[in-house]
Give the backbone structure.
Amino acid sequence: MSSTKPWGLLAQYENPATLTHACSRVKAAGYEKWDACTPFPVHGLDKVMGIPPTKLPWAVLVVGLTGSTFMLFFQSWAMGWAYPMIVGGKPLFSMPAFVPIWYEVTVLSSCVTAFLANWIMNGLPQPYHPAFASKAFERVTDDKFFIMIESEDPRFDTEKTKTLLKESGATLVEELEA
Amino acid sequence: MSTSTAVSLPNDPKLRGDVVLPEPLEGRELLVRGDHDFHSITEMVCAVNEAPILKTPNGLKFGIALAAAGAAMFGGYIGYLVWEGPGIWGNNNPVGWAWDIVNFVFWVGIGHAGTLISAILYLFRQKWRTSINRFAEAMTIFAVIAAGSCVALHTGRIWMDYYLFPIPNQMGLWPNFRSPLEWDVFAVNTYFLVSLLFWFTGLVPDFATLRDRTNVRWRRFFYGFLSLGWRGSMRHWMTYEKAYQILAAFSAPLVLSVHTIVSFDFAVSQLPGWHTTIFPPYFVAGAIFSGFAMVLTLAIPARHWLGLKDVITIRHIENMNKVILLTGSLVGYAYGMEFFMAAYSGNQYEGFTFLNRMGGPYWWAYWIMMSCNVITPQLFWFKKIRTNVKFTFVLSIFVNIGMWFERFVITVTSLHRDALPSSWDYFVPVTEVFFFAGTFGLFFFLFLLFVRFFPVIAMSEVKAVMPQANPHWEGYGHAAGGHDHAGEHAHDHHAAPAVGGVAGPAVATTGGHS
């Protein structure tokens, strides 16, 4: 398979410090299509890698407000127009009595959105990824730290990129097949 | 940490978790004991999950079998209940609500500690929560399932339960959104679903760990399916952490609202003994009180049998005992305040209800409640008691008993003396004893299966609070094989996360090797 271009390179690091250091070097070298994989979120690494803030809160805000507004109107409509019923001498539009369900549905719609948006925005579930073919990558959810650089990246050059990764403290550099 | 270095911990992982360390002069005690690295945490947590099915520890096998028998009995009981109707219970004319509702409130209250630990302590940056949150969240979910089965089955004609939900129907009829019982339907269902999503989100990275470690086909498929192809990408972690934060931020007020609404089931009615404004905060405090007791009841045996004392240390237990002390005192205060308001209001019905609780036919229930809930938590003022595992375990069971009786006292004693003396009656449980036992069977069956197959400690979260997780940890100067990181410290990343405010060498000494 040496004739075909690899999917990318995978480099293994032993701890968060070397990984952070290596990420700042990869970033400085101008790569764009690359990623770091870690067993837990390494704090400060997002800044080093230049990951933009997630837009997830906006999705939660929009759907949460929609769900919230819908439920207030729905309760008022059901109790006051669709099947008008006086209960406990309260007026047909008895807002205080609608608050608990209004509130619960706001929470429900926001949380379901946060949950779904998390997976959708991350492109998960994704049953297969080229890195899964690597034996070393099995430790990514345990105690090892990885950088992947995709060959799609305009600056990617198998040999030069390999050297960069090795010099930045990688204990292992592998080619990943597409 | 300078004081901790004076105490050398034994090297035995079975013992060192129970050693009480003196308060450090600066910073905080380390959350993980022993010389653990990331890999040994993984090994420790996964050990029970990765044992072959036939080599499940005997105690766990026996526990699962016993709980399965209880759950099966529950299934049979449900059949009997559906066939005969709630007439098989001891409920009588003034006592229309009894064990069905008592057990519901008991179970849903237990669930609240899980959400408190996973959401409120998360928002308050209480890092010690990381080793108990998975347990506690699982407990929440199974407790809410048990609670839900109590309310879903107490309606009598359970095949009509769908009327609780606003489903369009041929009669154009909607549920009464002004009723506290309908609020409860929304509150409990929302609570269950949100807790489940929160729990699952936290589990995904740990499922990925189990997926990556296994060679067994069914496990690879099972954990591979559940882990959604998680690969620990830093770009994913950022969105993930934000989602987790938002779920926590919504769960925190949710947990308060759920038990508030449960208390509305009582407080919005006009019955003396129920119709009080103190109920919402009093119920919430009681729920957290009972929930923490249940976390301890489950965690103390689990940390012992699963060998998890290095991550659930005596410090974690002490912290939970402090929460029990606080919420238990709030509950005690609420008991006193209820009495005061009954006297101060000058309302003779209210006054009678409370005197009747204390000295009426159910005096025994009242005094069990008082002794278990008011006296027990006060013992935790003593450091000797709150750092003693055996004492804590026994007292946690007393709290569980006391909180069950609290709900019994509130529900049954308020009802059994009606305004009209000719309708007074005395409630005695009949077959609902099996109902209650069945919910325990179901709860423990689910919980033990969880212990067997799911990671019981949030590995990725525990690793993130270890000092090694800090990119600026000084220990790497020695550990990384001569790789020089002196330049690292010059970088201006944000302030290093203060994991215990501990530097490398202190870890070695608290870890017990020189």
Notes: The two ends of chain B are 16 Å apart (CA to CA).
